[in-house]
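ok so I'm stuck.
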Amino acid sequence: MVRNKASSKKQQKRGVDFKKIKRKIGRKLPPPKNATNTEIKSKAIILPEQSVASEKAGLAVSKKGLTLKELLQQTSHHNPKVRKDALIGIRDLFLKYPTELKLHKYAVMEKLRERIGDNDRVVRETLYQLLKSVVFPGCKEDNQGPFISMMMAYIFNAMTHLAVDVRLMAFKFFDLVVQHYPPSFSLYAEKILQNYEDILQKNQFYLQDKGKLKNALAGLVRCLTLLPCNTREVVSSFEENLAGQSVLHAFEPDLPKDPAGFDLIIKKLRDLMPVLINCFHEFIPLVHATMHLDAQSFDCMLYILQSIDLAVRFFVYGTGKSQPGLCSSIHPYEGPDMTMWDQDVSPVVLKKLLVVFPLNPRHDVSEKDGDRYFILNVVITEIFLHFSEWSYPPPDLLAIFLEFIENALSGKTSSVAESGKAFREKHLLSLLPFIPKLVSRVSRNWRLRILQRHGIPSLDASDPEILGHHTTWIRELPLLLIMLGDKHPSYSKVVLHLQLRLGQCALLNSAVAQEYDNIQYSLLEFYCTCLEERSMFYGPFIKLARDSQELSVCCLYYFSHLDSPLLKSIAFCCLCDDLEPFMLFRIIEVLHSAYKAGHIQIADHISFFITLLSRFRVFPEEIYTVMEGDRMMSNRGIFKSVTSVVSSCLLQMGEDSLVFQILEEVILDQMSLRPPIDNICAMLRMLLILDSRPTRLSDQSVIYLSSFLSGYLIDVASGIPEDDGKSTSSIHVNTCHYYFLPCFLLFTRSEKFLKLTLDVMGSLITKNGSSPFSPNCILNATDHTNRIRAIVEILILMHKDVKIQRILSSCKSEIDHILQNMLSLQASKGMNMSIEERHNIQCAFDRLKCITSTLPSVPPII
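replied:
not stuck anymore, here's the structure
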C-alpha cells in the first residue's frame, strides 16, 4: 500500500502531451493561439469632387443609374443576362429621355446592330422589341437611309449564320426594317431573295419550328407586296429607288440604275418559285398524316401561296409583258425578258398546284379546318386567274377552277350557316374582279352556270382591299351589259340582278356608293345615246324582256345622285315606240321615288317630265279619229294617262308656287318650238295643275300665250266636222272639249287673258295666211271661211260653258269687233270669194250674233 501511494505521486508529476478539452456541442471554437490577425482597421479618406454620383449629375441615366455609354458597353458583355439587362436599360432610358435617341442614334445603332446575330435567343428578342417599340418609331421623321444601311450588313451576316434560330430571326429583323423603310427591299432585293431561297431549301429543320418559319414567310410576303403590279408602278418604283440611291450611295454603290435592274429580281424570283412550291408540298403529307390542319401549318401554307401569288402578279402585270389571256388590258411596256417565266416557271407553278387542288375535297373535316382549306383554295384559284392574264389556259384546266368558283359562289364549299356564309363571302372578294371578264370569255354552258350563282358577297367599305375588289366589279358591270346586248337575255338578267344588289348594299356617301354613282355614265350606251337632235341610238335596254327592264329600272333608284345625262337617256327610251306602256309608267314611278328620296334635283326632274310630254309622238296626228280600228291603233289614250301621272307627280314635288316658277319659263320655251296639238295640251295641263286663281302667270306670259293659244284654239276647232246629226258629233264635241279645257280654265283665272285672245282672233279674220303663232300642223284654216267658222265654234263652246259665259259678258266689245271684221270681210270687194263662201260667212255671223244677244248684261260699275 505504501508503494502504491508512492507510485501514484510519481505518476502525477509526469507532463501531459495532449490535454483533452471537453467542448459543448453547438459552441463556437476559439481561434488557435498561433492564429494571425488579418483584421485591418482604416479610416475613410474624403476627397472633394471625386464622387461617381456627382460625375453623372445632369446626365440621362437608367433606373440602375447607368448612362447610355455604359449601357452600350454592357451590350457586348460576355454574360447574356447582362446584355439583356443593358438592352432593357436602353429602352427605359430612351422612353424617359427621347432626345437621347435623336442625338445619338447613329452611335446607338452602331452598337446595337452587333446583337442581331447574338447567340442568345432572349437577347435577340429583346433587341427586336427595342427596335420595334422605341428606336424605329423615334427615328421615323428623320432620314432613315443611312440609319438602315448600318444594319443591313449585320442582317445579311445573320442570314448566313450556322445557327438556324439566328438565321430565321434575321428575316424577322429585315421584316421590321421593311415595315419602317419600304424602299429597303428594292435596294437589297437580290440578296434578300437569295437568302430566302437558301433558308427555304433547308426543309429538314423548318418543319419542326413552324412558328419561326411563319415569321420569315410573313416577311417575304411583305417584301413581295412592294413589287410593282402595273407598268406605272414600275416607273415610279425605280424613281423612288434612284431617289434613295442619292442618299445611300456611300453605303451601297452597286444599286441598279434603271428599270433593267428588274432582270435580277426576275431571275431570283424564277429560282425562288420552285422552292416555294416544294416548301408548300412538304406540308401536305404532314397535314394528311394528322387529319388536322393546325394553325401554324395553315399560316405557313397561306404565306407560301400568297408569296407565289404576288410573284405571279409581278411577272404578269409589273413587267408590262402581259399577253392576251382571259382579261388582258396591259399597256405595252418594253421591260425585262419574260421568256424564262413563260417557258420554265409557269408550268411548274400550275402543275404542282393542280396536283393538290382542290385541297381536301372531303367533307369529314371540322368546320374550322374546312374554312382554312377554303381560304387556301381561294388563293390557289387567284394565282391561276392571275396567270390566265398571261396565257390562256387549256379548257380542261380552266374547267377545274371554274367548278370551284361555281361551288364557292353557291356556298357548296363551306358552312351554310350565316357565320359560314359571311366567312365565305369575305374571302371570295378577291375573285370578284375576274368574274365579269370570265363570263364574257368562257363557253356558254359555264357562263350560265357562273352567272346563275347567288353568292355574290355583300359590301364592307371599311376594308380598303375589299373596296378595291368591289370597285373593279362595279366598273365592269356596265361594260358587260353592253357587250351582252340583247342577244343573251338570260345573262343580262343575272348581271342586272348583281347590279341591283350592289346598289342596295352600298351605304350612302360611302366610297362604294360613289363608284356605283359613277357607272351611270357608262350606262348611257345601255339605254340610249343621242348624237344629234333627232339621231337616237337605242341600246339593249329597249329589247330586253320586261323582267330585265324592271331590274334595270329598279337599279336607277340606288344612284345617290342621278345626273341629267342619264335622265336624258332614259327619257329618250320612254319616247321609243317599242317600249311597253307598263314600263313607261314604271320608269316614271321609280324616278319620282328617287326624286322624293333626294336622288334627283328638282330642275332635272322637271326637265325629264317636260321632255317626256313635249316630245312624245302621238299617232295618228288627226285628233278626231272615229273609226274603231283607228282608235285601237292610236297611242293617244296612253299619252293622256302619262299626262295625268306627270301632273299628279308635280303636285308632290313641293311648294306649288316655286315649282310653277320653274315650270313656266321652260314650258313657254318649248311652245315656241311649235309642237303638235297633243303636246301643247299636255304642257298646258302641267301649268294648270300648279296654277291658282288669279293666275300665277306673269303679264309677259299672258301676252305671249294669248297670241299663241288663239292659233291653238283655231286649229282644234278647225278639225271639228260639221254637225250631220249622227252620234259621232257628240264624240267630236267631247274630244274638242278635252283640248279646249286648259284654255277655258286659264280664261276663268284671268279676264285679261280672254280679252287679249279674242282681240287676236278678231285680227286673224282679215289677215291672209295662218297665224304666226299657230303650230306647224295647221292645214285647214288657211282660208278665211274656215277660219271664221272655227272662231265662231270656239265662241259657241265658250257660251255653253257657264263659267266662261259670265266672263264673255264683259267682253262684248271684243266680240263686236269680231262681228264687225266678219261683215267687213264679207263686203270686201278685194277678196275673191264665191257666193257660197260669202253665204257661209253670213251664216257664221248670224250664229255668233244670236249667242251674243243672249249674253247677260254687265251691271254698271258704281
